[in-house]
Backbone:
């Protein structure tokens, strides 16, 4: 017998055999679950009827790739019981509600651990499970604002630049949740005891700035934008416009790389300006003027094969065709959608984009069979088909 929907792919990725329940949400929770799915986990996404606010077309929502989906109305009388049936058979559960919501629905950590003491219960929020703002709504830009990291980004004479939702949602949120639940899974398998992982975007984003705080304490970082070595304040670590209105990125920090950079730019006379802050204004102006004399592609050719640490600033659509990224297969195509390939890479347990985005409810029957959970009266029996065997 075969099933409709998407069966799990055994032996794919280092997390093959790990079962994950994802309670549908937006932002960092789905991305964290996608990363676990990319690594080989069997991720079942519990979608809500009607979908979530701000949701993409399900066919294009890459964060739902490599997953399976069933639809559960958590406000229906039997809705929480269906989630608990899944939690009983899972290794990890991920939810991104405001603090207390899961408890009120009857699917909080206490409810789940009563059924499965080994479960790792991952909680993804912006503000965290406690603190004065824990019950407040928010989004990435507000979370990173209070950590001091947003204030570091951009030109000193302009408002801070918003780094999409990469810094907060995904770096400070999703990646820390994944690290947390995998560490807790290791502990659970060693001891038989699960736990709650409180992943807050404010905590993770603050943690990302650890080195900067060390430099601040040492007096080697100024607490203002574009005044430091790594924030665009340094003339040889930043971006410059080219003749065609595009940009080149420069990261020639070390002395030997700086010397090669100046040589290829034709500015050897500025060698002594590297460590002379009083000349940084002159250095920046000369570098900017030089870059404006050629197009981005012309400069790319000039710096090709060098250790000057210079690269073209590409758009999202251009990036997959960059020769290095193309050679490594950094991007892949699945179902007509160009997307980043799973990362990182493993020598013994390679990962892959096994399936496209899960369609809400499309895998209900397959999950019921594979996970051994009770079927629901509304489950469509036509989702089960025979293979003639």
Residues:
């Amino acid at each position: 017998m075969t099933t409709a929907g998407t069966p799990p792919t055994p032996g794919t990725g280092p997390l093959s055999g790990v079962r994950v329940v994802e309670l549908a949400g937006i932002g960092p929770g789905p991305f964290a679950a996608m990363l676990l799915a990319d690594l080989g986990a069997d991720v079942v996404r519990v979608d809500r009827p009607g979908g979530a606010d701000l949701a993409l077309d399900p066919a294009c929502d890459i964060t739902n790739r490599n997953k399976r989906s069933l639809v559960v109305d958590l406000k229906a009388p039997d809705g929480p019981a269906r989630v608990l049936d899944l939690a009983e058979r899972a290794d990890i559960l991920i939810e991104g509600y405001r603090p207390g919501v899961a408890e009120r629905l009857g699917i909080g950590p206490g409810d789940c651990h009563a059924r499965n003491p080994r479960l790792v219960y991952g909680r993804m929020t912006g503000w965290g499970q406690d603190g004065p703002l824990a019950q407040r709504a928010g989004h990435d830009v507000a979370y990173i604002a209070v950590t001091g990291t947003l204030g570091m980004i951009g030109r000193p004479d302009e408002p801070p630049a918003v780094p999409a939702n990469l810094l907060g949602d995904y770096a400070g949120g999703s990646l820390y949740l994944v690290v947390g639940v995998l560490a807790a899974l290791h502990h659970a398998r060693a001891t038989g005891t699960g736990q709650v992982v409180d992943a807050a975007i404010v905590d993770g984003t603050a943690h990302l700035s650890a080195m900067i705080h060390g430099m601040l304490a040492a007096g080697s970082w100024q607490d203002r934008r574009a005044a430091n070595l790594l924030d665009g304040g340094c003339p040889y670590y930043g971006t410059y416009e080219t003749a065609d209105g595009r940009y080149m990125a420069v990261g020639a920090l070390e002395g030997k790389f700086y010397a090669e950079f100046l040589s290829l730019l034709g500015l050897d006379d500025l060698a002594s300006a590297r460590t002379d802050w009083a000349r940084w204004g002159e250095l920046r102006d000369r570098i900017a003027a030089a870059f404006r004399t050629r197009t981005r592609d012309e400069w790319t050719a000039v710096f090709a094969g060098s250790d000057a640490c210079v690269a073209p600033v590409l758009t999202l659509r251009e990036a997959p065709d960059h020769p290095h990224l193309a050679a490594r297969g950094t991007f892949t195509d699945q179902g007509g959608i160009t997307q980043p390939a799973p990362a990182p890479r493993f020598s013994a347990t390679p990962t892959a984009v096994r399936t496209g985005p899960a369609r809400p409810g499309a895998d209900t029957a397959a999950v019921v069979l594979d996970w051994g959970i009770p079927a629901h009266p509304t489950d469509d029996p036509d989702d089960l088909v025979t293979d003639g065997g």
Q: What stands out?
A: Residues 166-191 form the longest helix (26 residues). Residues 381-389 have pLDDT under 50 and may be disordered. The first strand starts at residue 2 and ends at 3.
